[in-house]
Design a protein that fits this description.
Elements lengths: L2 E8 L4 E2 L4 E7 L4 E8 L19 E7 L1 H7 L9 E7 L5 E9 L2 E4 L4
Parallel strand pairs: 1-7
Antiparallel strand pairs: 1-2, 3-4, 3-5, 5-6, 7-8
């Protein structure tokens, strides 16, 4: 079983993106089930995404970042109302870190550690 974390960085401003709502869903045979949700802290991290000591089974997951609301709260014009990042957790993963590098008109992600 594995842990999942994320970190959102505002690349346009060169600082962490505090206050972004994010949720974690697990793929099921019929669609998706929510397994966690939180808001990024002052460092842009989501430390309580799953809760203390929570782990996920191998499978397909997605992180959904509410980027449109976050940019709107700051009065910043933007293109993406939300960002969805799907990824797979395998049996050998101890920890799966999925950072989001965000700007008003684009984003990037990668597998972190």
């Amino acid at each position: 079983m594995s842990t999942v974390s994320t970190h959102v960085l505002d690349t346009a401003r060169g600082r962490p993106a505090a206050g972004v709502r994010v949720r974690l869903d697990a793929a099921t045979g019929d669609g998706w089930d929510r397994v966690g949700a939180t808001t990024t802290d002052d460092d842009g991290r989501a430390p309580d995404l799953l809760g203390p000591d929570a782990r996920v089974q191998p499978g397909v997951y997605r992180l959904i970042f509410d980027t449109g609301a976050w940019f709107a709260e700051q009065g910043v014009p933007h293109f993406h109302p939300h960002v969805t990042v799907a990824f797979e957790v395998t049996g050998g993963d101890d920890h799966c870190h999925v950072p989001l590098l965000l700007s008003p008109f684009g984003y990037s992600t990668y597998r972190g550690s």
